[in-house]
Amino acid sequence: MTDTRPTLAVWKFASCDGCQLSLLDCEDELLVITGAIRIAHFTEMSRAHVEGPYDVSLVEGSITTEADAERVREVRRSSRRLITIGACATAGGIQALRNFAEDGAYASTVYPHPEFVSSLDTSTPISGHVAVDLELQGCPIDRRQLLEVIAAELVGRRPVIPGYTVCQQCKGRGTVCLLVSKGTACLGPVTRAGCGALCPSIGRGCYGCFGPSEGANPEALAGRLLSEGMAPVDTSRLFATFYVGNPVFGNQATALAASSETGLNEQEEEST
Amino acid sequence: MTHGSGAHRTVAVEGLSRVEGEGSLRVEVRDGVVQDVALSIFEPPRFFEALLEGRLASEAPDITARICGICPVAYQMSACAAVEDACGITVDERITALRRLLYCGEWIQSHALHIYLLHAPDFLGCADAVELAERDRAAVERGLALKRTGNLIMETIGGRAIHPVNVRVGGFYRAPTVAEVGALVEPLRRALDAAVATVAWVGGFDFPDVEGDYRFVALRSPGRYPIESDRVASSDGLDTSPAGFADMVIEEHVARSTALHARIGGRLDYLTGPLARYALNSSELPDPARQAAEGAGLGTICTNPFQSIIVRAVELVFACHEALRLIAAYEPPDPPAAFVQPRAGVGTGATEAPRGLLFHRYELDDNGLIRTARIVPPTSQNQITIESDLRRVAQAALELPDDELTWRCEQAVRNHDPCISCAAHFLDVTVARQ
């Protein structure tokens, strides 16, 4: 009997493996999934490899080398649908901090012989290189959202993934607002929901690991944080983590860092 | 694939599977003798040491967690230990105990993943766990249930299984309640039984007759099997602090193949991980783990790398038992975190990631900003030994047909559960994909 199951391929670029691990973390559903879908290429899980084309490709990781830029084009050519999973694949990941550093500075910090290293000076999302059909956010992605995406793909519908904020999820959980009640720095008002508003529920401000929500206004939030007495440089750092490669957060981080330097210069001028 | 005939034979695996991250291996055979072996890494570097410069020390646990999605707790714990060392902080015993419980969750999750999904299929001739489930669904379901219990601990203590959110320098954001922690008891009791069954299951596999000549390095803490400790020991008599060990380990960056090879004093290669922990600490195992080991025919030291799967299973028993012990004694730390006043200084922290010793060293300025960072993951320390194993295993298996020899060589690498994503932040990417 021919295998009529749709095929799934999982690909990895510069990343931590955590988002593809989310698939293996579906412990209760894994054997159900593999009953409905044929896993055709997934090196973390199997030494078997089925040649493409594939019905769906899940892509983890960012593009940081010329070779990977070429490889992702091959992946695109062999995939009917290409879905990127996680902060690295959708925004460049924490390694996109290199985009803001001087060219070559990072390689020479880590390597005694930077000339041995052939790495690009940027870490860029998959969408900067090929057409992407769907982006699933998170550092890491949420396992339940991944299941929703796979289930939706199987029947050809759009997955139900919220674009609203962590802030709204907090309200839904009944968590008292940390920013309002304690002045805790929190990115919840500008961060995409999906984690279940985990951090505020344990008394920690959201650190933005699902990236900007739809229509996020980080400038307004930054103003509020500064008015709470947070230093521009610290506010900048808050925006410059796992989604620094997304311009909504990255530009805000850059603007705050610039205002921080200006502020310092003014202080120095005053003192002289 | 394997190619060449007669005097020349080359084993080359382009994309190593069932390991975390992207690597390849190559073995050259000439006139019946293995000439050259190379475990190559083509995972692109992510420059963590560089991007940590100028960041707040308090950010180190969350940033370094992103080095590895399989063992984020190991990164968080080594980072916390290093920063606390630099700031001269010793945390409350209750915080240490809660950290250890969280870490047990990671060991259970990672070891169950490796044993059932990555390693066991090799011994049973299956391409993966899906094929294995077609033959023995109960076994795979047992493994997945174990893995789920590990993740449940990480979710309960850490907030989520991958990149937990509840860890901070000094301790935790929130201490879970006694009731929340108590809810883990029932799943853990079942997991303990499943872990004992796992030891019996893997103990019955056929193992190639290969013995390694290893210099073992692991943490040691008298009275308990090590997860976190302030002493590093070796099978040839080393006994030092994490800082002392960090000073001894010299990493070399070479253009050929994979780079930054870690050696003690720049010349002695060594092995960390389950075989090393077991060899140096098996006397500290609790009774159920020791009995399971004896039942599987394991002595107090195991030097057959293929049998690392048994040692991992014994450590699963230990981790389930240890988690239950910690839960029985659990008192929520109050406050959940020690106050850590940043100060200029240097700190080193070492903990036992599921796949081996992981140490971090940070130099901080008086504002608590990181001036320099050094992170040495287990796979970089094990890399030379893995290549030695590859040579030994290939030499002993030359009579096998090409496809079986290739598979055996892949297994020689998987024996050590290498985490290439971890290693890659320092690895050379000029290596061409074979």
User: Mind describing the biggest β-sheet of chain A?
Assistant: 5 strands, parallel
Structural Rg of chain A? 21 Å
**Terminal residue distance of chain B:** 11 Å
Low-confidence region ranges of chain A: 264-272
Total DSSP helices of chain A: 12
- The shape of chain B, in one word, is globular
- From the spread of the alpha carbons, the general shape of chain A counts as globular
CATH topology (level 3) name of chain B: Cytochrome-c3 Hydrogenase, chain B
Q: Could you say what the CATH topology of the largest domain in chain A is called? A: Rossmann fold
First-to-last CA distance of chain A: 84 Å
CATH first level of chain B: which class?
Mainly Alpha
Succession of helices and strands of chain B: EEEEHHHHHHEEHHEEEHEEHHHEEEHHH
Number of strands of chain A: 5
Main sheet strand line-up of chain A: 2-1-3-4-5
Counting structural domains of chain A, the number is 2
- Average residue-wise pLDDT of chain B: 91
- How are helices and strands ordered from N to C of chain A? EHHEEHEHHEHHHHHHH
Largest interface: A-B, 63 and 72 residues
Word description of this protein:
The complex is a heterodimer of chains A (272) and B (434). In chain A, helix 3 links the parallel strand 3 (54-60) and strand 4 (79-85). Residues 264-272 of chain A have low confidence and may be disordered. Chain A has 272 residues and is of the alpha/beta class. Chain A has 2 domains: 7-155, 3-Layer(aba) Sandwich (Rossmann fold), CATH 3.40.50; 166-271, no CATH class. Helices cover 40% and strands 10% of the residues of chain A. In chain A, helix 11 runs antiparallel to helix 12 (247-271). In chain B, strands 1-2-3-4 form a 4-stranded antiparallel sheet, covered by helices on one side. In chain B, strands 7-8-9 form a 3-stranded antiparallel sheet. In chain B, helix 4 (93-123) packs antiparallel against helix 6. The longest helix of chain B has 31 residues, at 93-123. Chain B starts with a strand and ends in an 11-residue tail after the last helix. At the A-B interface, helix 1, helix 2 and helix 5 of A face helix 1, helix 4, helix 5 and helix 6 of B.
